[in-house]
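Section 5.1 Outputs to date
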Amino acid sequence: MQRPVSIIYFERLFWLSLFVGFLSPVFAWDRMMADIARDAATIPPNVAVTIVVVILVAMAAISVAFWYGIARRASNVVKWIYVVWMGFSALAALADPFHSEGLRGFALGASLVSAALTLASIICLFRPDAVAWFSNRGGVDPKVFD
């Protein structure tokens, strides 16, 4: 089964967005830990770090499930869940520079680049070859590539 070019581009943009998106917490790590220490004085620092790491791993697992459902299973339902969830997330990231408590510096840059890559990956899902691929549940109509 050959996947259309738009789905291949989706995958590349998706993985790049995921990688760049996880750079944002790396760049903001010290600030995140300071915020956690300030807001949750009763939680020991090692527990706070564990919670943050578990949340990041869970986000990665959900993202991989999106990728699998879209790029490998051609699930239209997963595509729409991804579009809504990640679309709102990308828009929130684009609004982050206007918040006084938002990300700054390299963390903000990584977040904005990741949001742009996510929006580009979403666009790939609505190109004609991808739409035809989803409607055929992953099967490819040879006319798609004409």
